[in-house]
Backbone:
């Protein structure tokens, strides 16, 4: 297999080409064999070699980033309408091979494929759809902290993601201006220490599990030194799209932490959970973490009662409790995923008739400036 070009393995080009953990720069993942090297390693390089990337980091670097490659892997028409080059550079395709393997071959309506395919509809103007759909920027503080709700603060840990979901509400977020992991988390921890009303730190991004375990463990240790912090919450899609990320190193620091741990997963369709994902979820549960799922209601992906019932049942079978069903955050480029309110309400009535109450997610919308997620009537 040829070595991929640097552009093809860039973790995130949303104003942050160094979004991946800087202990593993791209050149270490793309180094040619010794026979192709232009020059021998320097003495300094020999004394301080780059760490060997973990299996999940190698998988992340090998993710599919070219639309033509994804179509070829799935046996789809090479002429399938897609974003043009300039629009795609703003929010490029990125999907790990393990997630592609769960897509149905030859099916352009596959629900997993639709979540990652850069459709030409993203370029259409849609009234009411904005760059900052949930008001993050108005609440952004130094150290990558977003403090919207009483008692808890969200930390933009990184701009990197293992997969670029096309409906992402932060697809236009200026990550280069707000990444908490820079500077050994010092500014973020200082902010959290100064506000003793904050009891829960929420690691988000991007996806926090795109960072190395050394960096994440250092943040957890810093949090543990703050008497006001009781809980650590991780918002992540990585265990679903790249299950090998849940390795011994991750589980070790999670298990050690004195903090109550909550992992909020993002699973939109039961097809996303295979045996390897199930094993990753079991490893996360074994750390003592509570596992919750928040899904997004997406047109053409999961906007049927059968799919939503199966999603709740399958996540719970793997120890994950349904938490939220978000209606779409109205971000520019995602209007083609929007499900109207009448349909969403009917879906909730339909699934409530088929599920016990503890498997029924709460239908919510995030409204900029509101003191909490807004529960929607149905």
Residues:
């Amino acid at each position: 297999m040829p070595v991929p070009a640097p552009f093809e393995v860039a973790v995130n080009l949303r104003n942050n080409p160094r979004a991946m953990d800087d202990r593993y720069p791209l050149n270490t993942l793309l180094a040619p064999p010794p026979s192709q090297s232009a020059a021998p390693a320097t003495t300094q390089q020999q004394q301080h070699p780059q760490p060997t990337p973990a299996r999940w980091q190698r998988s992340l670097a090998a993710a599919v980033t070219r639309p033509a490659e994804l179509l070829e892997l799935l046996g789809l028409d090479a002429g399938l309408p897609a974003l043009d080059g300039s629009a795609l550079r703003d929010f490029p395709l990125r999907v790990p091979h393990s997630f592609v393997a769960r897509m149905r071959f030859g099916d352009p309506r596959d629900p997993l494929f639709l979540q990652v395919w850069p459709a030409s509809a993203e370029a259409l103007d849609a009234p009411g759809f904005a760059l900052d759909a949930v008001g993050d920027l108005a609440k952004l503080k130094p150290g990558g902290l977003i403090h919207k709700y009483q008692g808890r603060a969200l930390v933009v840990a990184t701009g990197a993601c293992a997969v670029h979901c096309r409906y992402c509400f932060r697809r236009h977020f200026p990550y280069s201006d707000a990444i908490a992991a820079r500077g050994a988390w010092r500014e973020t921890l200082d902010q959290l220490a100064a506000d003793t009303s904050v009891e829960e730190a929420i690691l988000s991004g991007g996806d926090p599990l795109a960072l190395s375990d050394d960096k994440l463990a250092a943040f957890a240790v810093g949090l543990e030194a703050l008497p006001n912090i009781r809980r650590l919450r991780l918002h992540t899609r990585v265990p679903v799209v790249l299950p090998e990320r849940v390795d011994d190193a991750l589980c070790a620091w999670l298990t050690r932490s004195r903090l109550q741990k909550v992992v909020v997963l993002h699973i939109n369709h039961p097809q996303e959970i295979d045996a390897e994902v199930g094993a990753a979820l079991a490893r996360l549960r074994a750390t003592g973490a509570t596992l919750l799922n928040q899904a997004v209601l997406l047109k053409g992906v999961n906007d049927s009662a059968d799919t939503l019932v199966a999603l709740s049942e399958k996540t719970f079978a793997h120890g994950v409790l349904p938490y939220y069903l978000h209606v779409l955050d109205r971000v520019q480029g995602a209007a083609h995923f929007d499900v109207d309110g009448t349909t969403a309400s009917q879906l909730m009535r339909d699934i409530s008739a088929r599920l016990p109450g503890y498997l029924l997610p709460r239908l919510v919308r995030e409204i900029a400036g509101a003191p909490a997620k807004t529960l929607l009537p149905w």
